[in-house]
Write a structure and sequence with these properties.
Pfam families: DUF1949, Impact_N. With about 210 residues, this protein is an alpha+beta fold. The chain has helices spanning about 35-45, 80-90, 110-125, 145-155, 180-190, and strands spanning about 5-10, 10-20, 20-30, 50-60, 65-70, 95-100, 130-140, 160-165, 170-175, 195-205.
Length: about 210
């Protein structure tokens, strides 16, 4: 797994106009290929009279799934430059749809490539990106007496507390960078006089 990846900060639309053609770039984070395809279908439904709805998406922290469509534009002039822009910006788990309303002036192959790639680049600048970093999930169990202080200590130390559950004992779920697991185990033993339980779990990505 990649240690971190970048994705779109939020869903949104950015519009540009080139030689009287309107280019609307809709961007969104997408956790799966199905999510990306559902977003593309939604944008197409919103713009049924558009000349073209071209798209590109990259799924996987290692960019294992990459798809692009020219949607009727000359081959290689729309979807591919959109995909290349996503990859050049190191975007992952992201989908872009550029909706074009033709304005009567032909742009030529080079003009189309610049327009579609540029629309994605401008939209990324306008909407922003965020970095997601890989974490090791871990479960800490502690008695009720120590739980409040331990939660405060965790937050003071900048640890990500993801969930707290109260039962016979208190279960605290946290996210740790992989390199910190052993150091955290020692810190926890020291902070709770060895009374807390520690169970490393699976991996996930969280905001860096």
């Amino acid at each position: 797994m990649q240690d971190e990846y970048r994705t779109v900060a939020r869903e949104g639309v950015h519009e540009t106009e080139i030689n009287r053609s309107r280019f609307l770039c809709a961007l969104a984070p997408a956790a799966t290929e199905r999510e990306a395809q559902e977003f593309i279908a939604r944008v197409r439904k919103e713009h049924p009279t558009a000349t073209h709805n071209c798209y590109a998406y990259v799924i996987g922290a290692d960019a294992s799934v990459q798809k692009a469509s020219d949607d009727g534009e000359p081959g290689g002039t729309a979807g591919v430059p959109m995909l290349q822009m996503l990859l050049r910006r190191d975007m992952r788990y992201a989908v872009a749809v550029v909706t074009r309303y033709y304005g009567g002036v032909k742009l030529g192959a080079g003009g189309l490539i610049r327009a579609y790639g540029g629309a994605v680049g401008e939209a990324l600048d306008a909407l922003g990106t965020r970095t997601r970093r890989r974490f090791r999930l871990a479960t800490v169990t502690v008695d009720h007496q120590r739980a409040g202080k331990l939660q405060n200590d965790l937050r003071t130390a900048g640890r990500e507390v993801r969930d707290v559950r109260y039962g016979d004992t208190v279960t605290i779920e946290i996210g740790l960078p992989e390199a910190d697991v052993e150091g955290f185990r020692a810190w926890l033993a020291d902070a709770t006089a060895g009374s807390a339980g520690f169970e490393p779990g699976g991996e996930a990505y969280g905001d860096a």
